[in-house]
Every structure is written in C-alpha cells, then in structure tokens.
Amino acid sequence: MTVILFWFFSALMLGFGIAVVANRSPVASALSLVVSFLGLSSLFVMLDAYFIGIIQILVYAGAVMVLFLFIIMLLDLRAEKRRRVNLVATAGGGGVAVLFGLVILYVLNGFADGKKPFPELVSPVDDVRAVGTTLFTSFNLPLQIIGVLVLVATVGVVVLSKREMK
Known about the structure:
- The chain is mostly helical.
- It has six helices and no strands.
- Helix 2 (26-46) packs antiparallel against helix 3 (50-75) and helix 3 runs parallel beside helix 6 (140-161).
C-alpha cells in the first residue's frame, strides 16, 4: 500500500507541477502549485517527517500561496493570449528533455549505493528540535535575510501596483 501511495503522490505532484507551467491563468497556476505542495507534504509524512510535512502545508500551501494570490490579484494579471507554436523551439525543447532524461537514467544506473535499502532508525527522530536548532544556530543570518527579502518584495509589489491618480 505504501508503494501505491508513493507513486500516487509523486504522480500528483509532477502532474500539477506541469500544470503550474502549462496553465495560462496565473490564478490556476497558483492553485495547481498548492496541490503540488500537498503532494510533497504527503511524501514527507510517508517518510515519517511529520513536522516537515505540516510545515510544508502551513507555510508554503498556506502563507506563501496566499501571498502569491494576493500579489496576482493586486497586479490584476490576465490570462495569456494563445500564440502560434514554434515548431523549432518545441522540437529543441523536447530533444533537450529526452537528453536530460537519458543522462539521469545513466547516472542512476551507475550509482550502486542508491539500490541499497536504508538502515532502520535506532531512535525516534525529533524533527522539531533538529529543525529549530539548525535554523537558529547554523542558519540564523540567512533566515533573517530571507525574512527581510520577503518583506522588501511585498512592499515593492504594493508600491508597483499602486495606481496613479489622474
């Protein structure tokens, strides 16, 4: 049953990841990204990383996507218009994708340690303590910088989307 759920959530995540890029509407892309985040969160829960799975839903599917939707609505973005398909670019992109897939298969087949099963965990892992300790000791400065960057980006979007009075 675990293998079936793994493949289901992986396919869900990849399918909606493709929908993020393929959708013409920014709102539909953002909602597809939410479903992709839910699939990723389910994969984390299957790995017994409950904290990371819940944080994935709360932070990314919740707060970040609400911010994205707010920015999309604030900028009043419209759906893209259809345009002609460039056959040369489509064939080139398809060729690069096939070549990339072949390189990935080559690397995976040559990696012998990837075929070994994981050893059993000796003791239960405390995700919350490990993540908190790592964030606030080793990555304290980058965490603060990211917070300031998100704040500056939000203020910049509000300033850019402000309509001028005539």
